[in-house]
Amino acid sequence: MSVSDRIRVRDVQLLSDDHYLLKKTTFDWRGNDGQWRTMSRETYDRGDGAVLLPYNLARGTVLLTRQFRYPAYVSGHDDLLVEAPAGLLDDASPEDRIRAEVEEEVGYRLAAVRKVFEAFMSPGAVTETLHFFVAEYDAGMKVSEGGGLADEGEEIEVLERTIDNALAMIAAGEIRDAKTIMLLQYAALNLWRS
Fold this sequence. Notes:
Number of strands: 10
Helix content: 10-25%
């Protein structure tokens, strides 16, 4: 039996359409015991996104960003957030969008990007699928200082760190962004194997 055989949507209410969509859905769900139960859930639809870890094997480095994130701040994180370059797809392919985001945020025009996996980042409430990429970079690919788009209010600091330093930043609580942690762990396991 598929999931679609176990759910009957009763009602969908639009709660907010300010910047993204927040909906409340009431549905019947058939449990493992065969009984139908009425439930409701809120879902936040902000579109799908992409994230990329630029790495340089020869130098043992990665490029990261540091910027203000209000939701992290309001949750008690009183610092800028360290992240891998990322952004929403905005109707572009994941590959095209992540190339543009990397150029805007860290100033490198990448030759090739490689998708390594995709994941739901918060499937209990957010509909977003995130596409994860890695790509090699070198000094010849630098086309600007990066920093993001000023007209979007972005003030992004570019960080170049060794892979060992980036992993230590996770252990020290200096990197708390899940998508970045996932890509750094991927890099440690697959790009810098001992």
